[in-house]
Amino acid sequence: MEKINLMTLIKKLLAISVGAASLTLAISTEAQAAVIGKNIWYQFFFEDVGVAASSCVGLCEPDADGISEYAPDSPWEFVVDGGGAFLTIQDAFLGGDQFSAYNNGVLLGKTSTVPTGGDCSNDLLACISDPEISQGKFFLAAGSYSLDIFAEVSPFNVGAAFFRVDPIPEPTTILGTLAFSALGAGAWLKRRKKIA
C-alpha cells in the first residue's frame, strides 16, 4: 500500500475546494440580473424576433448626441417607488423594428408599428422626433421589475435601440417644489421693491 503524504493530501483538498468555490461564484455571478439606474438612456443590441435584447458593448455605434450609455446584459432590474414611472423604448438607425417589453415574463406593452424604410441613424434626439421610427411609453406601477425587451419585428435581423425609466415625482414633491419656488419669487419681489 502506498503511503499518502499528509501535506500533499491537504494541498489537494484545498485546491479542490478553492476550485469549487470559484465555479460556484462564476455561476452565481452569471445568473444575476443587471441593476440599472433611472433617468438614463440605455442603448441595447437586438437580433432576430423572439431573442432577448442584450448589451451593446462591442456591438453598437454610440449615439451621436452622447446622451446614452451601453446597457449591461439583460434582464435589467430596478425598483419603482410609490409615484410610478414611465418606461420608454426608442428604436434607432433604420426604421421597421418593433419591440415588446416584459416584466418577469408578463407583457408590459409593444412599441408602435412603423413602415420599413425610415432612417434616423444613431442620432437619438432625431429618432425620438421621427414618427417613422418605432417608440413606446409604458406606465409602471410601484414595485420591483426585471425587464426584458424582445424584437417583435426585425426586418434586418440585427440592430440597436434605446430604453429608459423615468420616475414620476410624488405629488408632495411637486407641491413642495412649487411652494419653494413661490417663496423664492416672493423674496425676489420684496428685494426688487426695496431697490426701487
From TrEMBL:
Keywords: Membrane, Signal, Transmembrane, Transmembrane helix. NCBIfam families: cyano_PEP, PEP_CTERM. This is PEP-CTERM protein-sorting domain-containing protein. The chain crosses the membrane at residues 172-189. InterPro entries: Cyano_PEP (IPR026374), Ice-binding_C (IPR013424). Residues 1-33 form the signal peptide.
